[in-house]
Amino acid sequence: MFEDAFAAELATQLGSTVEVATDNNLIEGILSTVTAELVLVIDVSSGYGDNVKIYISLDAINFVRFPVAA
Predict the structure, then answer these.
(1) What is the spatial distance between Cα 57 and Cα 60, in angstroms, rounded to a whole number?
(2) Buried b / exposed e across 8-36, counting CB within 10 Å, b at 16+?
(3) What CA–CA distance (Å, rounded) separates 48 from 67?
C-alpha cells in the first residue's frame, strides 16, 4: 500500500529535478517516468553526449529529495 501512495506522489512531480538515494547510489537528474514498480530518472549532468536513463526499483529507494533551485 505504501508503494502505491509513494508512486502516486512521485508522479505528481514529473519533470522536476530530483535526488534519489539507494543503498549504494545517489542519483541526480530529472524525474521522467513513474510506474507501480519503477522510477526513471534522466541524468542530464553527464556532460557531452546522450543523456543517461537510470531505472530504479521503487523498493530500492531509501529517500527522494527535490532540491530547491538557487
Answers:
(1) 5
(2) eebeeeeeebbebeeeeeebbbbbbebee
(3) 23
Q: Please give the model's pTM, rounded to 2 decimal places.
A: 0.85
DSSP sequence for 11-36: HTTTTSEEEEE-SS-EEEEEEEEE-S
Domain coverage including residue 61: 1-65
Gap between the Cα atoms of 33 and 54, Å rounded: 10
pLDDT digits (tens, 9 = 90+) for 8-66: 999 999 999 999 999 999 999 999 999 999 999 998 765 677 788 999 999 999 999 99
Give me the CATH number covering residue 39: 2.30.30.100
